[in-house]
UniProtKB/TrEMBL annotation:
Pfam families linked: Phosphodiest
Lineage: superkingdom: Bacteria
PANTHER family per UniProt: BIS(5'-ADENOSYL)-TRIPHOSPHATASE, ECTONUCLEOTIDE PYROPHOSPHATASE/PHOSPHODIESTERASE
Protein name: Nucleotide pyrophosphatase/phosphodiesterase family protein
Length: 383
């Protein structure tokens, strides 16, 4: 398993970014374990899908971003997927504590929760909202970093697409900040610069998702993806040009991405070896949570391990917990959300499912523990 880049907990993970920025601001109760410059205000901008290796390999398309590539990468955590990473960032905790353990995972109704929509997929049923029956504040009850900062007197601003207001993921991961909905590069930049220049201590969090979108649709490194990266490079250069001297800008990402061939995939629905004894298949195509029927865990584990072979790694959920994949602490409620069996794929391997026809057909994917997916940049601007 020498290709696996497992999470570690040395104070340099994505979950450490916001507490470290608040520590650099001198806010009591927060420690800067990453090493940001001291500042009055701080802004974190998350570029969805901007892996450290992808940025390094496409330096010609992002010269300004690459000029900031002077620090060792951070680790995103496991699984390397947006919903988990953003909740780790927002709570300052790993998945074993905050409970958003994947793109989809078991919910109390017996189906799969998809945190992006906060909807359930009951076995054999149709998606339905769980916002009322399993509220995000109940599923993820930990106080967020934003709430803690606001309670300490910091002006906290969440600068994200306007359509994210009130969503389940926003409520689970980012509650506590004043919501500033944006629609394009222009108002994203303006709101972040306003946070950076505020007269009182201010923490701004911004998000941009189009690089990830184009990576999924066209593949990372494709012409559309590279052109989008060039636009992001200009955005960050503009922010740096106008950043007040009293502020720090930290550009990070939630995960990287690998190019895949959807036609070369294992099929969790039609292969009897992957179907027998399985109650639910969650996660995503490169990191699957497999939930076994009662008494079938050992057989499911053996069948998945034999079928996947050298294309990935299959281990029990208990072993993944013991090895710290979900963080140093896994609470009892969260343990029930983790698959009985975990399957992660290497290189370009994927495990598709008919329940996810759109997701399974994408040209770029993430979720696993390769360095291309796990390592993310931390790019710091301080004038």
């Amino acid at each position: 398993m020498d290709w696996i880049v497992a999470p570690d907990h040395d104070g340099r993970a994505l979950s450490d970014v916001l507490p470290s920025l608040l520590g650099a601001m001198g806010i009591d109760g927060f420690a800067d374990t990453i090493g940001f410059p001291g500042c009055r205000n701080a802004v974190a901008l998350l570029i969805d899908g901007l892996g450290w290796e992808l940025l390094r390999d496409h330096a010609a398309d992002a010269p300004f971003l690459v000029s900031l590539l002077t620090r060792p990468p951070l680790k995103a955590g496991f699984p390397t997927t947006t919903v988990t990473s953003i909740t780790s960032l927002g709570t300052g905790r790993c998945a074993g504590e905050h409970g958003v353990v994947g793109y989809s995972f078991a919910d109390p109704s017996g189906g799969l929760l998809h945190p992006l929509s906060w909807g359930a997929h009951p076995a054999g049923g149709h998606r339905r909202s769980l916002l009322e029956s399993w509220p995000p504040e109940q599923a993820q009850p930990n106080t967020t970093v934003l709430q803690r900062a606001a309670a300490s007197g910091v002006d906290v601003r969440t600068v994200v697409p306007a359509e994210f207001q009130g969503t389940g993921l926003t409520r689970a991961a980012l509650r506590g900040g004043a919501f500033h909905g944006v629609r394009a590069f222009g108002d994203l930049a303006a709101e972040l610069l306003a946070a950076a220049g505020a007269p009182e201590p201010t923490l701004g969090y911004g998000y941009h998702g189009h690089l990830d979108l184009l990576g999924h649709v066209h593949g990372p490194g494709s012409p559309p993806w590279r052109l989008q990266l060039a636009q992001i490079d200009r955005l960050v250069a503009t922010l740096a040009e106008h950043l007040p001297a009293s502020a720090v800008l930290a550009v990070v990402a939630d995960h990287g991405m690998v190019a895949v061939d959807p036609s070369d995939a294992l099929d969790a629905d039609t292969d009897p070896a992957l179907r027998d004894g399985v109650r639910l298949v969650g996660g995503e195509v490169r990191a699957r949570h497999v939930y076994a029927e009662p008494g079938a865990v050992a057989d499911v584990h053996a069948a998945w391990r034999e079928t996947i072979g050298a294309r990935g790694v299959v281990l029990t959920g208990e072993r993944a917990v013991d090895e710290g994949w979900f963080g140093p602490v896994v609470t009892d409620p969260v343990r029930r959300r983790i698959g009985d069996v975990i399957a992660v794929m290497r290189e370009s391997g994927v495990i598709r499912s008919a329940a996810e026809p759109g997701e399974s057909a994408l040209r770029g994917q993430h979720g696993s523990l390769t360095s291309a997916e796990q390592l993310v940049p931390v790019l710091v601007v301080n004038r």
